[in-house]
Amino acid sequence: MKRNEAIRVLLVEDEAGDANLVKIKLRQTQSGYFELAWAQSLNEAQKYLTASSFDVMLLDLSLPDSEGLATVHKARTMAVDIPIVVLSGRGDTDFALTALEAGAVDYMVKGDFGYDGLARTIRYALLRTEMEARNNLLIAALEAAANGIVITDKDATIIWANPAFGRLTGYSPEEALGNKPNQLTKSGLQNEIFYRDMWADLLDGRHWRGELINKRKNGNLYHEELSIAPVKNGAGEITHFIGIKEDITERKAMEAQLQKLASTDSLTGLFNRRVFLEQLEQERAKVARLSHYSAVLLMLDLDFFKRVNDDFGHATGDAVLKAFAEIARNASRAIDIPARLGGEEFAILLSGADKNDALSMAER
User: Fold this and answer.
1) Mean pLDDT of 241-249
2) Whose CB has fewer CB within 10 Å in the chain, the N or C terminal residue?
3) Mode of pairing for the β-strands spanning 337-342 and 296-301
4) Which residue from 335, 364, 360, 339 is spatially nearest to 350, judged by alpha carbons?
5) 10 Å Cβ neighbour count for 104?
């Protein structure tokens, strides 16, 4: 509500003297302008609510058609979104707390309004209701978010998680409470240096973002993009951490597939010409830099391959190329780079090998 707008107040009070006191106090206030409507029963209040809208309700608990806390419950049903301030002749703290639990946002003792106290209470009720509505909206947004969101305390113990966290990890928000995220999803595929660097950034107050492989409740691994933000109090001390978790397993699989398509020969599955030449240049530079290091390049060609295609067809020729590629792959070491350069031309780069290694490979 804007400060220069009139605050519309519905007073539900059956005592004329108490109602006049409220009117006087609101006219005297210097903190705003109030428009007051007076109802002497809940039934009359219902008519006012049907005919017009109000910003706040001042509610006496002893009315001709209702008594005690039941009055709060009934008024709350009638005015779902309107903050209710209870006015009572009882200065009982326990009773005040009970009234708040019943749905009131504040409680005042009649005749004890003080200077501008009633106006301040009304403004506080409006502000509190506005803040609660905003918080409820934010919570609804977090609950509906597609990404997993988890909030921990400063010791990384989970205090809240949204449903998407459950769908991602297999652990319901209720199961997650009281646990640390790494107790639930740590796969062991990230080393201690990874986590040490991550926590160094976070404890220094910096936002951290990265990718890791985690484990679901059922044991399946998945790729996750994780973003963690430290939350600080007014003194600049970290009090909480907010983590946003996104399942990127499909994206990583697609990236791997695209990388494979870009780096391998589609027929044989060996490295293609472009990747092989890049690796060859890197190996050449290494040989030039290190006097004790050597490498070998084998160039291989299938004799009379054209006859295979001419006599038996291209399907058979493709089968021959794939069979030879499998031989080259099986004969190579893990560090070697077998490739198809084009047609029936193949090559194998033997890292760290000498001439004897090359002869042995060629014979195989």
Assistant:
1) 96
2) C
3) unpaired
4) 335
5) 24
Q: What is the pLDDT of residue 194?
A: 94
Joined tokens for residue 280: 């060859």
Smallest Cα–Cα separation from 129: which of 26, 58, 56?
A: 56
Query: pLDDT per residue over 81-91, tens digit each?
Result: 899 999 887 76
Mean pLDDT of 295-316: 91
Bigger pLDDT: 24 or 239?
Answer: 239
| DSSP E strand stretches across the chain | 7-12, 34-39, 56-60, 62-63, 66-67, 84-88, 106-109, 148-153, 158-161, 208-215, 221-232, 238-247, 296-301, 337-342, 345-350
Condensed to tens digits (0 to 9), the pLDDT of residues 306-342 reads 999 889 999 999 999 999 999 988 888 888 899 999 8
As a whole number of angstroms, the distance between CA 188 and CA 203 comes to 22
Mean pLDDT value of segment 9-29: 90
Integer distance in angstroms from the first to the last C-alpha of the chain? 85
Looking at the DSSP bridge assignments, the partners of residue 228 are: 208, 243
Question: Which residues lie below 8 Å from residue 196, measured CB to CB, with a gap of 6+?
Answer: none
pLDDT at residue number 28: 83
Nearest-Å Rg of the Cα atoms of the chain is 38
For CA atoms 344, 345, 351, 356, the dihedral sign is positive
* Rama region for 267: left / alpha / beta (φ>0; ψ in -120 to 50; rest): alpha
